[in-house]
Amino acid sequence: MGSPLLKSLDDAMVGVRKLAFDTAPIIYFIEAHPRYVDIVERVLRKVDGGAITALSSVLTLTEVLTRPVQLTQTELQEQYLDFLLHSRNFSIAPLDAQMCVQAADLRARYGLRTPDALQLACAIQSGSQAFLTNDIKLRKVEELRVVVLEDLLQSESGPS
Question: CA torsion sign, 90 to 129 to 115 to 29?
Fold first, then answer.
């Protein structure tokens, strides 16, 4: 029933050769979110070092760029584009008809929002072993391991 709570980042990455990213971890990294930037940086070091390859769907471009475009934050737009389009061992995957069909199935079975279903379908179709997110509602998805950042922080800091 969904992804189990994980003990640590290392546990979460066991057997992961390809990791799909949801939009939130990318925002946390680029905008240096005080709670999550360190854990996302640790994941990205594994990617940059070649231990795993990473991807996100092309939908992520729309999601990360909307607010900076609204606020005419050109530098932030460029940071997102540079990261998503030019990072080592990180790629942007296109969406195709097969992914959209799978996204409809995921939406129907799990009650997901369309963007979440598309991100997950892309992850599954690309052969990713895990999906990095901070959306706890996605834990119920059984088709791949869902790694929730907050779970990692809680497990590494111990009981509060």
Answer: negative
Give CA–CA dist 65/153, Å, rounded: 27
> CB neighbours (10 Å) of residue 4?
11
Tens of pLDDT, residue by residue over 1-41, are: 344 444 689 889 999 999 999 999 999 999 999 999 999 99
Residues 6+ apart with CB under 8 A from 130: 12, 13, 16, 19, 20, 144, 145, 146, 147
Show Cβ contacts of residue 71 under 8 Å, excluding neighbours closer than 6 positions: none
Q: What is the pTM of this model?
A: 0.92
| All domains in the chain, ordered by first residue | 21-151 (3.40.50.1010)
Q: According to the model, what pLDDT value does residue 1 have? A: 39
- Report, as an integer, the average pLDDT of 107-116: 98
| Beta-bridge partner residues of 145 | 130
- Contact between 59 and 22 under an 8 Å Cβ cutoff? The reply is no
Residue 93 in 3-state DSSP? strand
Q: Is 19 helix (H, G, I), strand (E, B) or coil?
A: strand
Mean pLDDT over each residue of the chain, to the nearest integer: 93
